[in-house]
Each structure stands twice: as C-alpha cells, then as structure tokens.
C-alpha cells in the first residue's frame, strides 16, 4: 500500500517536472515588478496600521523616591511611512523586498503613583525611526497550476524610538524613556514580520483568480494553468502556461505539441505575453473536432447588390450543363473543412492554410438537394491579429486559393472557370462570417480586475508577442 502510494506520488511529481513546452508564456519585467511594488507597499502600509501595542504596567524602584507604580495605556499608531523600498528578482526563488527608513508615530497615555498618595498622568508621543524590513517572497505553482506566494527570511529592525512626554515631572522621563524604548522595540519587532507575512499571503486570493480554464464559447475553453514552476531570472519572472484550447468537457490532445520558443529581451512594458502557433493550432483542432468548421451558403447570404446569384443560371454561364439539366433553380453550397487549419507565424506574418471541400447543390422545388459537383479548396489567408480588452481577436483576408474538381455530377468542366466565383464566395460570404467569430475574441490569461494598458502586438517566428502595461481596478 505504502509502495503504491509512493509510486503514485512519484508519478505525479514526474508528470509535473517533465519538461513540457508551454503554449503561452507570460513574462513580468522589472517595470512590472516595480508597479507591483507600488501596490504591495500600499497594502503593506495599510496592514502595518493594525499594529497593536499592549498596555504596560508595573512598578520600579527609583531613588530617592522609592517604589513607583506606572502604567502606559491606549498606545496607538498614528502614522506609518514607508518612504523607501526596493524589489529585486531572486533567480530561482522569487522577489526580494527591502524597506528602509520607515517610520511610525505612536501616541499613548501614562499614569504613575508613588509615595503612596501622589498620582500623576499625561500623554506621550513616540517617533520610531530607521525601521528596516527585508524579506523574500517565494513564488511557486500550486496544485491547480496557479501562482502562489509565501514569505521567508523576514527580518525587521527598529533603529531608534524617541519618546516625548507631555506633563509630569522630569525625573519620570528618564524612567520611562528607557523602558518604553525597549518595550516598544520588542513589540514592534515581534509584530512587523507576521504582518508582512499576512500582506504577502494576502496576494494569494488575487493570484487564485488566474483564469486557468477560460471559457471561450459553447464549444471551447482555453487551459492556462502553469506547466512548470515559474522561471525567475535576474531580469524577469516567466510563467509558463499550457495555453491550449480544448473542447468543453472533453479534453482530447491534438496530434502536435508546442515547439520551444524564447522571448526577446524586451523590457519596455510591464508584461509580455507570448502565444504560440501551437495555441492557435489547438483552436483549429478543437473547432474542427466540434464539427463547426462548415457552412451552408444560400443566395440570401450573398450581398443584395452582387450581380452574382447563387442559382443555376449564374453557374450555367460557366458550366452550361447545369443550366440545361437544372433550369431555373436556386443553389446551395456547403463549405466544409476537411482537416484542421494550420496556422503559422513568421515575423510580421500570420498565415492560416485551410483545406476544405465545396459541394454545390441545386435546390429542387420540393426542397430536395441535387448534388452538382464537389470541389477541393486549398486556401491561404492572412490574419490581422489585435488585442481588445482582455481578448485576442483577429480578421482574415484571402491570400491565395487553389481549386480542383473532386467529383462532378454535371459532366467534365475546367475548374478554372469557377475560380472567380469561388473567390467571391470566400471574400464576401465565408470570410466575413468567420471574421464575425474571430472579432469576438479569445480570452488572454488574466488576473481578475486586470486591465491592459496600451497593448502592442507583434508577430514573431512561431509566436505572437503582446507587450503591455497593466493596471488593476480594485
Ligand atoms: C506570409 O507567410 C506565408 C507562409 O507562411 C507566405 O506564403 C506569404 O507569402 C507570407 N506573406 C508575406 C506578406 O510575407
Ligand atoms: C423532388 O423532386 C425531384 C425532381 O423533380 C425528384 O427527383 C424527387 O424524387 C423529389 N423528391 C421527393 C421527396 O418528392
């Protein structure tokens, strides 16, 4: 039993550590890290405001007065400042955060009783200066493939605490100053790192919002879980994501795998997202499997102003046999992908090649479809890809088209005569319909409430690169 379970653990470990090329890589640059620092420091400052200094009381012998009973109460934090901080990447581990010259202002009340009957009270202010905090934030991948952070090696130091009393006799000041100074330092040093921990761990619910399974439409979803631990170098933190389309609820692997690709050393933007040709091709595979890459074309889908109509009269001009055999009938075309389209990315060039068949029918008055011919269609389209909101979207234009006759039910004909007709059908009917779908877009990897600011998209060899700044609303 034990052997079996350790075997399973081994398997699980092996399957997560095997080098799997990601379909998508998200890179955080130093600029992104600095933006993250701003948000983090603001959160940390809020957290530190919850520091609580307990009341102190006790007694102390002071010569020549004798025993002095004292209490310090209502000590509260008035202000915290974290004016200088720095974050740097720690290769292989995560992020080092150092805060220097931080300060805190506290206010409280003091009360003493001595010589049995003498009571006195007043208030005091404490200025804590030269506070330093340093810690390492470890970034890993959790069981769901989302990033998760934890805190380690936190150290907090208080350089000085200056106490200023209001009211009371001067000899009291000396008594308290030393005592308060020490007690406060202890209390602060004990509380700061736990609060830093809380701030860091407080990031996890936000990181949990990574859309590891992003729904696209009723057919497809994209898996964006991490395929390995984050790759952290001196200059960037890379999250390697699966980046694969799947049929909803039916995760079938395509007959191809992601090729390795590496990002250029650009760092003008906070974030870079590289989406591989694999990701795009997995979409083609999924939609083809879903059986949705087919389209019936009827005359009402051809623009009103077009001289070309989808009827046997028009086609009869090119293939007289059609007009002779099926006079005065409307026609219908079925365009259907024969295999998944293939998408390739070359520098500044996104091209998709689709292999389809076009079956032409005459529509009999009783509704029966009489097949006329089947054409094989090989077409190449250029894709203009763009980012809209948190989606990537595209628009196709026809490049090239190659026709051959598959089957003819209307005798032999030269396929070249249909070239311009089919070209027009693709241009004015098929591609516009595909473009309506593509324009709806496909979700990019994102954390909740994230916005892309001024995204730019470049087509590189084997992947698309989106460079963008980000901000978070809430
Ligand atoms: C884009 O790439 C395809 C092949 O991947 C090629 O056929 C086409 O000519 C290229 N287009 C441009 C404008 O370079
Ligand atoms: C429909 O009409 C065609 C042509 O006139 C004929 O061949 C076919 O049998 C008819 N089908 C039905 C179901 O009536």
What are the SSEs and their pairings?
Elements: H1 2-17, E1 24-29, H2 30-48, E2 56-62, E3 66-81, E4 84-90, E5 94-114, E6 118-141, E7 147-157, E8 160-166, H3 170-201, H4 204-207, E9 213-215, E10 220-223, E11 231-232, E12 236-241, E13 244-247, E14 271-276, H5 277-289, E15 294-298, H6 312-318, H7 320-325, E16 330-337, E17 342-346, E18 349-363, E19 369-388, E20 391-408, H8 419-440, E21 442-443, E22 450-460, E23 463-472
Antiparallel strand pairs: 1-12, 1-14, 2-3, 3-5, 4-5, 5-6, 6-7, 6-8, 9-10, 10-13, 11-12, 14-23, 15-16, 16-18, 17-18, 18-19, 19-20, 20-21, 22-23
Helix pairs in contact: 2-3
The structure holds 2-acetamido-2-deoxy-beta-D-glucopyranose (NAG) (2 copies).
One 2-acetamido-2-deoxy-beta-D-glucopyranose (NAG) binds at residues 364, 366, 368.
Report on the structure:
The chain has 474 residues and is of the alpha+beta class. The chain folds into two domains: 2-20 and 30-207, Super Roll (Bactericidal permeability-increasing protein, domain 1), CATH 3.15.10; 213-472, Bactericidal permeability-increasing protein, domain 2 (Super Roll), CATH 3.15.20. Helix content is 25%, strand content 46%. It is built from eight helices and 23 strands. Strands 2, 3, 4, 5, 6, 7 and 8 form a seven-stranded antiparallel β-sheet that branches. Strands 15, 16, 17, 18, 19, 20 and 21 form a seven-stranded antiparallel β-sheet that branches. Helix 2 (30-48) crosses helix 3. The longest helix is centred in the middle third of the chain and has 32 residues, at 170-201. The two termini are 49 Å apart. The relative contact order is 0.12. Mean pLDDT is 92; it is low at 7-17. Bound molecules: 2-acetamido-2-deoxy-beta-D-glucopyranose (NAG) (2 copies). GO terms for molecular function: lipid binding.
């Amino acid at each position: 039993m034990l052997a079996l379970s350790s075997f399973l653990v081994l398997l699980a470990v092996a399957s997560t550590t095997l080098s799997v090329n990601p379909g998508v890589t998200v890179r955080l640059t130093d600029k992104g890290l600095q933006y993250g620092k701003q948000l983090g420091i603001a959160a940390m400052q809020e957290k530190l405001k919850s520091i609580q200094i307990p009341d102190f009381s006790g007694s102390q012998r002071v010569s020549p007065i004798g025993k002095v009973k004292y209490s310090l109460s209502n000590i509260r934090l008035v202000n915290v400042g974290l004016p200088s901080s720095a974050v740097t990447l720690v290769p292989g581990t995560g992020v080092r955060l150092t805060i220097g010259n931080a300060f805190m202002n506290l206010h409280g009340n003091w009360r003493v009783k001595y010589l049995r009957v003498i009571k006195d009270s007043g208030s005091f202010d404490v200025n804590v200066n030269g506070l330093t905090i340093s810690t390492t934030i470890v970034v890993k991948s959790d069981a769901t493939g989302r990033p998760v952070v934890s805190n380690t090696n936190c150290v907090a130091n208080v350089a000085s605490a200056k106490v200023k009393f209001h009211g009371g006799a001067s000899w009291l000041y000396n008594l308290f100053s030393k005592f308060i100074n020490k007690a406060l330092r202890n209390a602060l040093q004990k509380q700061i790192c736990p609060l830093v921990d809380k701030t860091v761990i407080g990031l996890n619910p936000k990181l949990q919002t990574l859309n590891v399974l992003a729904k696209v439409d009723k057919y497809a979803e994209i898996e964006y879980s991490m395929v390995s631990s984050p790759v952290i170098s001196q200059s960037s933190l890379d999250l390697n994501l699966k980046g694969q389309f799947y049929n909803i609820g039916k995760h079938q692997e395509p007959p191809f795998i992601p090729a390795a690709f590496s990002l250029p050393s650009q760092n003008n933007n906070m974030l870079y997202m590289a989406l591989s040709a694999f990701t795009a091709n997995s979409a083609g595979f999924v939609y083809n499997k879903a059986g949705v890459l087919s389209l019936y074309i009827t005359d009402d889908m051809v623009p009103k102003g077009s001289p070309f109509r989808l009827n046997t009269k028009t086609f009869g001009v090119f293939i007289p046999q059609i007009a002779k055999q099926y006079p005065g009938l409307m026609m219908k075309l079925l365009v259907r992908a024969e295999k998944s389209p293939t998408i390739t990315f070359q520098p500044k060039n996104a091209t998709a090649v689709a292999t389809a068949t076009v079956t032409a029918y005459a529509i009999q008055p009783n509704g029966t479809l009489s097949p006329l011919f089947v054409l094989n269609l090989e077409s190449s389209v250029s894709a203009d890809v763009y980012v809209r909101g948190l989606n990537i979207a595209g628009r196709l234009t026809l490049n090239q088209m190659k026709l051959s006759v598959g089957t003819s039910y209307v005798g032999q004909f030269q396929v070249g005569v249909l070239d311009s007709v089919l070209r027009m059908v693709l241009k004015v009917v098929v591609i516009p319909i595909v473009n309506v779908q593509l324009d709806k877009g496909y979700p990019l990897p994102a954390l909740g409430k994230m916005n892309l600011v001024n995204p730019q998209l470049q087509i590189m060899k084997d992947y698309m690169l989106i460079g963008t700044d980000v901000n978070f609303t809430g």
